[in-house]
Specification:
Length: 277
């Protein structure tokens, strides 16, 4: 832990207050808070923050609600449970690069899915990954598709821990359908929901593979026109494209603070609402 986590983390924190030559890391120049002042005025960083928050706010509810509903359906169906679990879990163990390339072919102009979204939601009928109006939505869709299977498995495990006697007693009291879900299942999988919320937020805030696959070339990753850049791609670009480790580290430190807040929130939520199930 000291070698692979603590030392690099502390080193990166120190870099955030320094001007560092990428090719001479051992001779940094202390510049105080200048990197953070530049971040506050950097429009590319602002866009990366907005994009990251958009992906998070769109993906997290879909992962939680979709994961729960699909898990509940699978556990209450009589046929094909194993097949359904496998089908939904395959994207979670598939390379993000492969998933991105596969979905790109499904969302091309005049394809079935773009025409469907245009008809139902009035989203432009374009090649989603290449158009600034739809590229960020495409990344959010990728994040949901890849991670949904993991949350389905988490909820399946949580639902399976609920004793059958509780459902039998609820049936005698007339709890059926949505009433059973609202009054019994949702409260009893509360701990899993809290955990899933924190995990999904942390993963979405660290989105990298999908936008990186969409634009491997160019000085700033986030094609087209920076509309898919995230905090992690911003850090990567500043460090490995512009060779500014100090400036990149300041952006990484901002992300670290955000994730730290969510980690602390997890502990607070678990203490306040958690408990043995």
């Amino acid at each position: 832990m000291a070698i692979w986590f603590y030392f690099p983390a502390i080193k990166s924190l120190l870099f955030s207050f320094q001007e560092v030559n990428f090719f001479d890391l051992n001779n940094p120049q202390n510049i105080g808070l200048r990197n953070f002042h530049e971040l506050l005025a950097d429009t590319n960083f602002h866009q990366a923050v907005r994009n990251t928050l958009f992906i998070t706010f769109v993906s997290v509810p879909c992962l939680l609600v979709g994961g729960f509903l699909i898990a509940y359906y699978i556990e209450n169906t009589n046929k094909g449970k194993g097949l359904l679990r496998t089908l939904f879990f395959i994207p979670a163990i598939t390379s993000a690069v492969a998933l991105t390339m596969a979905l790109m072919y499904l969302f091309v102009m005049d394809g079935l899915l773009p025409r469907l979204f245009h008809t139902v939601f009035n989203i432009p009928n374009v090649t989603w990954a290449a158009d600034p109006r739809t590229a960020l939505r495409f990344v959010a869709l990728l994040v949901i598709w890849k991670n949904l299977g993991l949350f389905i498995i988490l909820y399946i495990n949580a639902i399976n821990t609920i004793p059958n006697e509780i459902f039998e007693a609820a049936a005698l009291d007339g709890a059926q359908g949505f009433k059973k879900i609202r009054l019994i299942v949702i409260p009893l999988v509360r701990n899993t929901t809290i955990l899933s919320f924190i995990l999904s937020v942390m993963w979405c805030m660290q989105t990298f593979d999908e936008p990186f696959t969409l634009a491997r070339s160019g000085s700033v990753i986030g094609s087209p026109a920076g509309t898919t850049s995230t905090l992690i791609t911003f850090f990567y670009s500043q460090n490995f494209r512009f060779f500014r480790p100090g400036y990149a580290s300041s952006a990484a430190f901002v992300l670290f603070i955000i994730l730290l807040v969510f980690s602390i929130s997890q502990n607070i939520l678990e203490k306040k609402f958690g408990g043995d199930q």
